User: Which sequence fits this backbone?
């Protein structure tokens, strides 16, 4: 596995503590400024229960088969990812958490554990930072928009492809355990990132062909040279506010547990609605194309 930070030297490094003292989304919205720059800050109050988050998750949803997790933005173990588990003897979430803690087997990255679908009871003990508020899409029935999730990854695992989240949502990340390296590209880097339409409504150009391990492969992806990446190593007790439409991918330099949630408020609601409306003709086109003659 390539450790990117040894080679992606031109990336701007973001650290905690930038840039203003009052970064709440409410304050920014009142001031009429949109939160378009990512920022990192210290935050260790996410989990509000004496039992560890992983223990409680295991207790509540340990019996759940891995291929039933996820489903809002992506599946945890589905299609070709099933092959990654062959021979590991890991069927359920409890099997995975136990193996992750034992550290004896090399495990795939367990991504997109949907809190609303897997363990909604956990949410009462999760306190989002003020920097992620107001967030109008936290109710469970708005899961398609807000979709709070957990990610569990061993050292050396990577999210994979550079992508952006759908419909102009901001994304808040909080690192619960370990560290996560995040590579971010501003929305204006789109021409250099080999993007292609996503497979889900509203079918925006939000996927790319570029994986984390390709970020220095200028032979295969020459336009990448023109991109302006940011690099963040999010440590346990730190959080990242990532504004709408920033492209990103991640790498876990050590065992990592993290939380993320999508955010919509007055600063991006019009863009989110616009993106959904623009998806309708694309949906109609796809339906018409797939209709049997
Ligand atoms: O937490 C990660 O590793 C990546 C999450 C992510 O990129 C996403 O959910 O869009």
Assistant:
């Amino acid at each position: 596995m390539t450790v990117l930070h040894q080679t992606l030297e031109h990336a701007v490094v973001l650290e905690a503590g930038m840039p203003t003292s009052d970064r709440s989304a409410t304050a920014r919205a009142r001031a009429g400024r949109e939160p378009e720059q990512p920022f990192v800050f210290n935050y260790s109050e996410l989990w509000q229960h004496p039992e560890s988050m992983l223990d409680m998750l295991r207790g509540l949803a340990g019996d759940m088969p891995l291929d039933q997790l996820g489903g809002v933005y992506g599946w945890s173990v589905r299609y070709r990812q099933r092959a990654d588990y062959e021979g590991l003897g890991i069927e359920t979430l409890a099997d995975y958490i136990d193996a992750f803690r034992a550290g004896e087997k090399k495990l795939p990255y367990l991504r997109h554990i949907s809190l609303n679908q897997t363990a909604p009871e956990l949410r009462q003990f999760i306190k989002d930072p003020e920097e992620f508020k107001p967030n109008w899409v936290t109710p469970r029935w708005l899961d398609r928009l807000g979709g709070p999730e957990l990610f569990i990854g061993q050292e050396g695992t990577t999210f994979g492809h550079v992508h952006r989240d759908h419909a102009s949502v901001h994304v808040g990340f909080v690192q619960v355990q370990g560290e996560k390296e995040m590579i971010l590209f501003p929305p204006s880097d789109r021409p250099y990132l080999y993007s292609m339409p996503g497979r889900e409504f509203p079918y925006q150009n939000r996927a790319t062909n570029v994986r984390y391990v390709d970020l220095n492969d200028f032979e295969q992806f020459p336009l990448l040279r023109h991109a302006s990446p940011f690099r963040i190593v999010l440590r346990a007790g730190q959080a990242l506010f990532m504004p709408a439409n920033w492209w990103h991918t991640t790498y876990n330099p050590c065992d990592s547990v993290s939380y993320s949630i999508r955010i919509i408020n007055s600063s991006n609601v019009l863009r989110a609605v616009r993106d959904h409306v623009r998806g309708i003709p694309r949906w109609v086109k796809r339906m018409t194309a797939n209709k049997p003659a």
About this structure: Residues 29 and 157 are 37 Å apart (CA to CA). Residues 2-46+127-290 form a domain with the Jelly Rolls fold (CATH 2.60.120.10). The pocket of 2-oxoglutaric acid is lined by residues 73, 151, 159, 165, 248, 250, 258, 260 (CB under 6 Å). The longest helix spans residues 269-290.
